[in-house]
Amino acid sequence: MYGKIEFDRHPAATEGSIIAMAPMRRVAAETYDQAFSVCDMPPLRLIADTFGAELEAGFAAIRRELDVPIGFPEPVLAAAAEAAQRGPTLPPGAPDDVLDRTDLALLTIDPPGSTDLDQAFAAETTDRGYRVWYAIADVASFVSPGDALDTEARSRGVTLYSPDMRASLHPEILNESAGSLLPDTVKPAVLWQIDLDHDGNQIDAHARRAMVQSRQRLSYRQAQERIDAGDDDPSLQLLKVIGELRLKLESERGAISLQLPAQEITQLPNGDYELHYDTTMPVESWNAQISLLTGMAAGQIMTEAGHGLLRTLPPLNQGTVDQVRRAARALEVDWPKGESYADRVRRLDPNIGPEAALLVRAARSFRGAGYDAFSDGKIPEQPLHGAIAAIYANVTAPLRRVCDRFANEIILAHCADRPAPEWALEALDDLPGIMGTSRQRDRSLERATVDFAEAVALQCRIGETFDGVVLSHRRKGSSIQLRDPAVLAAISEKPDVGEAIRLTLDGVDAAARTVDFRIADAV
């Protein structure tokens, strides 16, 4: 009935934990019944006729609690309509040499049904190796500094997702129409050209404003099937080649990538909801590597320019690495002599209880992710994203993340050998606070929504017992992963981390988003 569910290979899609790849996505129903599987954990199905009204009332209450904006003020809608009707214009201080690159056979790869398309991709071979073309929606061509759209986007920070709706960064007429890289439409873009050698190393990168036209809109499933079938589209063929080369380089430079399970709630076409673990396919990793490549190039360019906004995360220190190694010994997880930290945690299997527990321990070792603004050549003392093991910046999702619009403008100016516009530089001091606040609200919304859905689904199962494994100890108890259904639970006791246990559900308070489990007996 439910199909098989796969753990997410890149859990930090929202950049909340380990390796930052792409903006958060919501997987549509098509992936459930067809996805190849690394675990058989079924999702929780919440039938609309039974739970729909309660769920939607609860989701609305959570949005009110977290001040998630609903709709847009009339002046913002009017400004968006005017910008869409007017069409793209150059922002203040921008050079007027906009390229016509509608000849590029760009394509987009996104979750099914997506219409807010930030990125379009093409690739070709060269004498030196490969050339990547990456077109990013040029939101600054529609949003003027200081106008109602700009002010509203700064107040929101990011697009926020609930299972039954989303609070977009900009009104729909921009996010899903005028500013989106929809197929068969000519749109303004920040067009990256990134040259790689035969091993996938970056040789050169620069960005220019251009008019582009995407030729194809593919879902992850469609792209994967075409690549697997040997489709002759050169960009699809090279996406796999370049993606795998970049994954190899990622491993060689010591980047940390963890296969943590990621919970999501999705509304199905019939109105039912499912709480499940996110599915993924190889093409998503390859596609994410293109975004990551661009973000690393952007970070390099901004440090050369002497001003910008970096996405930073302190690297792990040796003491933390030693703690994780000790945890591995305590959990009896084999760690071959000489194998690096990055290589060992990359191989951890979330389907094996002790290894899942060690994954959680490794993930908790990363602390201090943030945004660091700099100017006048004063590069942050710690400029790296420690999990990526490189300097990195957010530039590839301006329809869904406000900071990218300003970062791209600084990059465009530097690539054109011009001073960055004042309106972009003036925003730098405020952007770390804006992004920090919006990211926190995003995480709170996601966690509260999942907690609520779990409580609603379990309120008719009080008294039942469930199998689980102890993932970690908390200040007041332990975190438990149930094997079926896909629920993370908390208990007040502290069994050994990695231990398989049975739990009894004693009570549920859906309004408070809490479930009360206790240990039944050891397995």
Overall helicity: 25-40%
Could you say which structural class the secondary elements and strand pairing correspond to?
Answer: alpha+beta
What is the number of helical segments per DSSP (H or I, 4+ residues)?
A: 13
Whole-number average pLDDT? 87
Low-confidence stretches: 1-40
Quaternary state of this entry equals single chain
Radius of gyration: 23 Å
Characteristics:
single chain, 523 residues, alpha+beta, OB fold (Dihydrolipoamide Acetyltransferase, E2P), 2 domains, six-stranded mixed beta sheet, five-stranded antiparallel beta sheet, 13 helices, 34% helix, globular, disordered N terminus
Describe this structure in words.
By secondary structure, the protein is α+β, with helices and mostly antiparallel strands. It folds into 2 domains: 11-316 and 366-455, no CATH class; 459-523, Nucleic acid-binding proteins (OB fold (Dihydrolipoamide Acetyltransferase, E2P)), CATH 2.40.50.140. It contains 13 helices and 20 strands. The strands form 6 sheets. Strands 2, 3, 4, 5, 8 and 9 form a 6-stranded mixed sheet that branches. Helix 2 (74-86) runs parallel beside helix 4 and helix 6 (234-252) packs across helix 7. The longest helix has 28 residues, at 431-458. The radius of gyration is 23 Å and the shape is globular. Residues 1-40 have low confidence and may be disordered.
Q: Topology, pairings included?
A:
Layout: E1 44-46, H1 48-65, H2 74-86, E2 99-100, E3 106-110, E4 119-125, E5 129-137, H3 148-156, E6 160-162, E7 165-167, H4 172-178, E8 186-197, E9 202-219, H5 220-228, H6 234-252, E10 263-267, E11 273-277, H7 282-305, E12 308-312, H8 318-330, H9 341-346, H10 353-363, E13 370-374, E14 384-385, E15 390-391, H11 402-415, H12 422-427, H13 431-458, E16 465-474, E17 477-482, E18 488-491, E19 500-509, E20 514-522
Parallel strand pairs: 2-9, 3-9
Antiparallel strand pairs: 1-11, 4-5, 5-8, 6-7, 8-9, 10-11, 12-13, 14-15, 16-17, 16-19, 17-18, 19-20
Helix pairs in contact: 1-13, 2-4, 6-7, 7-11
